[in-house]
Amino acid sequence: MKSIIIAAPHSGSGKTTITLGIMECLRKRGLKIAPFKVGPDFIDPGYHKLVTGKPSINLDGWMCSADFVRSTFTLHSEWADMTIIEGVMGLFDGIGESVNDGSTAQIARITGAPVVLVVDAKSMAGSAAPLVKGFAEFDTQVNLAAVIFNNVGSENHANLLKKAMATEVPKIKVLGCIGRDEKLHIPSRHLGLLTAEEHPLSPKFLQHLSETIEECLDVNFLCRLSEISCNPKLKHGKENIPFLPQKSNSKSKRIPIAVARDEAFCFIYEDNLRLLQEAGGEIIEFSPLSDATLPHNIGGIYLPGGYPEIFTSTLAANVSMKESIAEAIEKNMPVYAECGGFIYLTKGIMDDGGSMHDLVGVFPVAAHMLHRRKALGYKEIVTERDSILGKAGLKARGHEFHYSEITPVPHSLETLYRVCKQGTDLGSEGFSYKNCLASYIHLHFGSCSGLAAGFVESCEKFK
Fold first, then answer.
1. CATH of 3-239, one of 3.40.50.300, 3.60.10.10, 3.30.1220.10, 1.10.10.10
2. Exposed site from 41, 66, 204, 389, fewest CB < 10 Å?
3. CA 251/CA 229 separation, integer angstroms
């Protein structure tokens, strides 16, 4: 399998921009690119899809098993000429102090893909060589094969970097040096870059980015490098992939599930949708921003996360959609909502002045945006009773990252989850009303084989 991983010593090195540039450059050469993102990130995959035209798949070694990572990587790569995996944070940054769980290095071991390290060379010259050498020798199971220097100040600066590498780390190929360029800046906010839905990259930006990659990097060597992926556990062919059992392939017998997909609700693991489909669901996309009502004849609703707070006025003004969702919930339709989707189902979002924009109002709490991060990190949940996700006792993993909090929860509001983080019990979460389940946690359905099947079964029973 032809694949590479774009990693970095730390966040902010420029790996997302360079990853997008390489994807665009190879796309222009006529290659079909399969994009992937390490970790629970939703924003970078949106840009991957914008450039390649294909959904970007999250690979996470903490939320999901190594077998699941291998199988989904194989499945989503088999049609492509080349796969490009963008790393998360620093190469060896995992959950807590671990370099094994949730890190880019873990995915490199599982997939066997060679690593290209993006080093921010600003204010650095000869010191770049021991930095790269340390990363290359830290774990022999990770094949650090090449380096890209970013934010290089001048041609002389580039020569210093190359000479230091040739002297101290000759086995690591320097693919090239990219100069400082404000034209390659992508706007950001507290959760990272602006989403691709809000800030689609212009043709002019992509043209300049791909030209920079072609001019500065040895793209031909990069393509040859991708051919050395060598994990014997990775095999082509669907017979090697442990999928959930599928129901009838007849479209008429599939269970339609409405999934919110627009600028306000764009944070979703693509594998969650795949697993729902493999369990017998049919994904029907809709927009709470612009559609008047829910799609007809559905069996359930999935409200993913996103930025509802950015579009509060529009969401609040779409009264017919709010009423349509509230009516479906009152009729006991299975509804699963996470983070932004949960906020949408509350009474509303309060601004700093105390005014509130009314939302669906199923849950008797309100959300308030904070200036500091409220929660960040991996979470593990156990369901304490039967629910729309299946029988009690299901264990699943996910991620939480938000800048909002909700007003005090009434004692009458039931919870489904028992939540823990790295062995510490965090109490109850997963708020439920009738057949509606909402939580701040983005669960990865690949972390628990019963989740997708359980939800589809609940939707089928409702139908």
1. 3.40.50.300
2. 204
3. 38
